[in-house]
Amino acid sequence: MKLKFITLLILAALSLNAQGLCWETTESGMGRERSSQTFYLPKMLKTVSAECTVIYRLDKSLMYIVNPIDETYSENNFAELEEAAKKMGAWVDEKMEEQRQLFGATDSSAEVEWQVTNTGQKKTVSGYQCTKFVVTEGATEMGTVWVTSELEEFSALHKDLVQISSLTAKAHLAQPILAARKQIDGFPMLIETALGKIRVKHHVTKLEKRFIAESEFEAPEGYTKVPSSINYQQAPKVTGQKSVTIPPKDTTLQQR
């Protein structure tokens, strides 16, 4: 009887969690380096960095930005997020035009189409076998993506990542990669983007499966809700920034 009771308690505890994914990423470029940790369940994604925590709830069409320093958070619906991203589009378009002029890419007045090529080249990234994809615009190489297909049980992950990427693609320097991601099946372990003299790298250094509580994807209790701090109206500065290295908050992940 006692054993049965303990078993029920264990099952009850597991029911509050679900099988998910955790990964750590190092982003470098634009004169800085930073680390982040991401937690994923279907329709839910949370990224934790030293600056803030960003939570996407695809099931609710909401995004939370959490500031642990002053214990506040803001909330945006996806329509607001897309509108804010559009305001950043002019600056990104300007940088894209610079690249076209430098390397003779297609006419900016024409509709941009990103070509994705599977090179067939293989290598291991952070313990996972990956295939190299190249993204081009005309004859200009815009970036490369190393993708693993070893996460077949997380078939919803690719679709969710594409949806999240599409929300801010217009405001992101990695726009070619984000726009092309829907054509690339699998999980991106290493992304390298070239935009003129600006180069950005996203490297997943650790990746593991883990049971994650759904409560991890809610705004923290006791935090104060504040107006949204998203502002894409001002172009980011790409020079004069200090390079910093931010250690991950959670060091329990073990590399495969």
Task: Give a written overview of the molecule.
The chain has 256 residues and is α+β, with helices and mostly antiparallel strands. The chain has a single domain, classed as Lipoprotein localisation LolA/LolB/LppX (outer membrane lipoprotein receptor (LolB), chain A, Clam), CATH 2.50.20. Helix content is 23%, strand content 40%. The protein has helices at 2-15, 78-103, 155-168, 175-180, and strands at 17-29, 32-41, 44-49, 53-57, 62-67, 72-77, 115-125, 128-137, 140-148, 187-195, 198-213, 224-225. It has a 12-stranded mixed β-sheet. Strand 10 and strand 11 (198-213) form a beta hairpin. The two termini are 39 Å apart.
Quick synopsis:
Helices cover 23% and strands 40% of the residues.
N-to-C order of helices and strands: HEEEEEEHEEEHHEEE
CATH architect. name: Clam
CATH topology descriptor? outer membrane lipoprotein receptor (LolB), chain A
Highest-level CATH class:
Mainly Beta
* Structural class designation: alpha+beta
* CATH fourth-tier homologous superfamily: Lipoprotein localisation LolA/LolB/LppX
Give the fraction of residues assigned to helices: 10-25%
Mean pLDDT: 76
Give the biggest beta sheet.
12 strands, mixed
Would you identify the regions where 5 or more consecutive residues have pLDDT less than 50? Answer: 2-16, 103-110, 232-256
Provide the spatial order of strands within the biggest beta sheet. 7-8-9-10-11-1-2-3-4-5-6-12
Question: Roughly what fraction of the amino acids lie in strands?
Answer: 35-45%
The DSSP helix count reads 4
Gyration radius, in Å: 20 Å
Total count of domains: 1
Total DSSP E strands: 12
Q: Could you give the distance between the termini?
A: 39 Å
Give the overall silhouette: globular
